[in-house]
Design a protein that fits this description.
3 domains; alpha/beta; DUF4147 domain-containing protein; 18% strand; 228 residues; 4-stranded parallel beta sheet; globular; glycerate kinase activity; 3-stranded antiparallel beta sheet; single chain; 9 helices; MOFRL_assoc_dom
Length: 228
C-alpha cells in the first residue's frame, strides 16, 4: 500500500528529542526500531488476520452434526456457539473487505449460508494500483457473498440502500438453528442505512449536521432517529 510505504518512510526520518545529536549509527538504529514498531502496529490490526483469529471452528464440519464456533470479540472475550444449522456473515465498515477475506469459508462448506459485505468504494487511484480487495475463492463459496461498494463521503446512496436490503433479506432467510456473525468497523453507519425519510432529505440532514460542526456522537444521535 503506497500510503503505508509513505508512513514507514516518514517514521524512518522522524527526529525526536536528541536524535540529531546522535551518531549516524545510533540514529539509524532508532529509525529502524521506529519502522519496526510501526509495521508491528499495522500488522496487529490487519483486518484479514483479525478475522482469522476471531472466528474459529472447534469441530469438523459434517452435515447433520452440531457445529461449534468460537467467536473472539475485539475486547478479547470468547464465546462458543453450537450451531445446528448454517452460518451467515455480514461485514460493514471501512475494513469490511479485509475482514471478509479472513472468513473460514472452505472449512464451513455447505454450512455457509451466504454473506453481505458493505465497504467503501476504492478511489480511481486505488483501483489503478490494484488495491481493491478480492475475496479468495479457493473454496468456490465466495460467489455466495454479495459485495456492495458504497460512497466514501459518509453520505448513504442507492448502493447503500440496496446493500442494506440484502442484509435484511439474509437475516430473514435464517432459521432457528442458524448463526449470523456480524463484523463491524468504523464508518459502518454510512454503509448500512435504512432511512425513515426520502434518501435526498436524509443525505441533506447528514451533510448539514456534519458541516455545522456536530460531533460524531451528536450526529449519530440524530441519525439513530432518522434511520430504521
Amino acid at each position: 500500500d503506497p500510503i503505508l510505504l509513505q508512513l514507514t518512510a516518514a517514521a524512518a526520518v522522524l527526529r525526536i528529542s536528541g536524535l540529531s545529536r546522535m551518531s549516524t549509527a545510533a540514529a539509524s538504529t532508532v529509525g529502524s526500531r521506529l519502522c519496526d514498531a510501526f509495521a508491528a502496529g499495522v500488522a496487529a490490526v490487519d483486518p484479514e488476520s483479525l478475522a482469522r483469529r476471531s472466528i474459529e471452528l472447534l469441530s469438523d464440519v459434517q452435515d447433520g452434526e452440531v457445529l461449534r464456533l468460537r467467536i473472539r470479540s475485539s475486547a478479547g472475550e470468547c464465546r462458543d456457539f453450537d450451531v445446528a444449522g448454517g452460518v451467515g456473515f455480514v461485514a460493514f465498515g471501512k475494513a469490511a473487505g479485509g475482514m471478509a477475506c479472513g472468513l473460514p469459508l472452505a472449512r464451513l462448506g455447505r454450512r455457509f449460508l451466504g454473506g453481505v459485505v458493505l465497504a467503501p468504494a476504492p478511489t480511481r487511484a486505488e483501483r489503478s494500483a490494484g488495491l481493491g480487495f478480492r475475496l479468495p475463492d479457493e473454496s468456490g463459496l465466495a460467489s455466495r457473498i454479495q459485495v456492495f461498494e458504497g460512497p466514501r463521503d459518509n453520505l448513504p446512496d442507492e448502493t447503500v440502500l440496496t446493500g442494506s436490503r440484502a442484509v435484511s433479506d439474509l437475516i430473514d432467510s435464517l432459521g432457528p438453528g442458524d448463526l449470523l456473525v456480524a463484523m463491524v468497523t468504523g464508518g459502518g453507519s454510512a454503509l448500512l442505512a435504512w432511512p425513515r425519510l426520502p434518501l435526498p432529505d436524509y443525505r441533506a440532514a447528514t451533510r448539514a449536521l456534519s458541516t455545522a460542526g456536530f460531533s460524531i456522537a451528536e450526529l449519530n444521535a440524530v441519525r439513530a432517529r432518522l434511520d430504521a
